[in-house]
Design brief:
Radius of gyration: 20 Å
CATH architecture: Up-down Bundle
Low-confidence stretches: 412-424
Number of domains: 1
Structural class: mainly alpha
CATH class: Mainly Alpha
Strand content: under 5%
Shape: globular
Number of strands: 0
Order of helices and strands: HHHHHHHHHHHHHHHHHH
CATH superfamily: MFS general substrate transporter like domains
Length: 424
Amino acid sequence: MRRRSVHYAWLIAGVTFLVLLTGAGVRATPGVLILPLEREFGWTDATISGAVGVNLLLYGLMGPFAVAVMERFGLRRTVSAALLLLGLGAGLTFFMRAPWQLVLLWGFVVGSGSGMVALVLGAVVAERWFAKRRGLVLGLLTASSATGQLVFLPVLASLAVHLGWRAVSVALAAATLSLIPLVLIVLRDRPADIGLAAYGANAIEPGRQATQNPARRALSALGMGIKSFDFWLLAGTFFVCGASTNGLVGTHLIPFCGDHGIPEVQAAGLLAMMGVFDFFGTTGSGWLTDRIDSRFLLFWYYGLRGLSLIYLPFAFSFSFYGLPLFAMFYGLDWIATVPPTVRLAEKSFGKENAAVMFGWIAASHQIGAALSAWGAGYVRTVTGSYLDAFVTVGTICLVAAALVPFIGMGGRMRAASAMEVGGR
């Protein structure tokens, strides 16, 4: 009996999983650094949150351009360049002394690098390498991105407490740069490059390298997207997703807990708990996306998320079980919105354009994250409390849930328009 070998697509997915896990962990590190930087330099929460806002903004805006660059220059070169940026940004933080250096390194350098290996990378890999199990794979890759932001934080917080925040920068630089050789050896652009069909496909589909300028390709996709009612609904609801996850909870939960006397390492442990539950929640969301109407899923995701955020400020009164209950529940819903959002983008704009259009939708996600990161820090600086920030964002999540059923009511994009955006 002949033994079946593992399809190379799963190896590609495994390396992509590690890249997304590490990149997300680097991007989320400022949540650990807020309190140490306040203590050492006397910088305000608003000042540090401003740098985090730049980071989140670029993290999102790089997405559609990163997809276009991957189409033009390939996965290996694009991902390797992104990891190099992350390693340099994290490593040079060791020498940081002024707020403008924080903005430059963690805002611009790390923000740009992390944006190139963000959710759009998972979308590209899933679309190219998997004809079957695409939703499940996208769920796994998305989970790695969100889990990386959360699971690494207790380790990084412990480093910051016991060895100082500069030890965090050295550890991140080493972890990131060590992945570059693995990426260069393993990653390939498409299954056809090594004579394979995509996983679950019956025939090899020859890939064609894009010749269009990456910036023009990305901008032409945006031009088509802004004419679509579905694009605005997808971008608007994903804006709320970013505001409620990376921007608010990912950035401010640790100082929020600090305001209630909870130590940094213990607070980071709550984020790690969210990461563990997110892995199962987002992977399950990918599995469900292959089977259930994506609008139905998004309605419940945003609705339950809104209720949990409104609950959080009052969870501190429930002592032992209040915060762990929030962490478990919120973790399951952390970034479960990605697989159904990508599926709806594919239905609206076609398979060849799903990744680049999702890149712009993801940019909206990070604009929401950036505004929320800065806004919550500003609210705390002015009022001395995060209460208004969490209740406001929770309410906006409920509004997003109400908008989700209207996605698709404007009609699908015409095939001719979708081919025009393909730029091939």
